[in-house]
Amino acid sequence: MARGGMEAAVWDLQARLSGEPLWKTIGGGARQEIACGVSIGIQDSVEQLLEKIDTELAAGYQRIKMKIKSGWDVDVLRQVRERFPLIKLTADANSAYTLADLEHLRQLDEFYLMMIEQPLADDDIIDHAALQSKLETPICLDECIRSAHHAEQAIRLGACRIINIKLGRVGGFAEAKRMHDVCEVNGVPVWCGGMLESGIGRAHNIALSTLPNFVLPGDVSASKRYWKRDIIEPPVEVSAKGTIHVSEETGFGYPLDREYLDSLVIRQETIR
Length: 272
Prior knowledge:
- This protein has helices spanning 2-18, 22-25, 46-58, 74-83, 102-106, 125-132, 148-157, 167-170, 173-185, 199-208, 258-264, and strands at 33-35, 37-40, 63-67, 88-92, 116-117, 139-141, 162-165, 190-192, 243-245.
- It is of the alpha/beta class.
């Protein structure tokens, strides 16, 4: 992830030296607006979850992702579907299950989810292949996929039908682009996952999401969902139809709020 942060900065520098937007430097530009979804954690009650989903839908978000685990899955998803029968809904397990839970996980097929994200261990592509063969719902791999080679293995084994690409997890744009290309050639759609980025990281995710195979709503959301005040100006905002406009400005597209950033800095180093 440290390498990914440095590599992203180098790509941004190259874009600025070229006088063009970052998305153009990385070969993106397939869309000028990206579709946005949100991720909602496990709540204290089902009613609290339903209220949060209602709030995010009212804000325009196109896809709702909810975290699941044993004891907070089938019954909760059933109530969500009863309240919101037509929304784009996904479930993120964060490796909460094992292959021994196969019959339990098969119950999730009734909720016509877009995907189940990372149901099994983060190093277990083979068991995911066994599970996917028994499920109608697409499996999306996240933590399992740290390189284009992992993506090739997972696709060859039939371990997933969707892949989540996170810049930090895969070490930057170069590997993310290779993963994107492998998935595109094999007809496997991808989407951009979020990792609680500040506005700088969020801007890089927006650029990544303009590559052509990012066809599913990602976790790139408005700054205000996580920050009282972001370190870019203006902050990232989501339209009423659940999209973020792609900036035409040079580099990652958002000026830094330097006055605010300076007020937070406790140590600074300049590399020349």
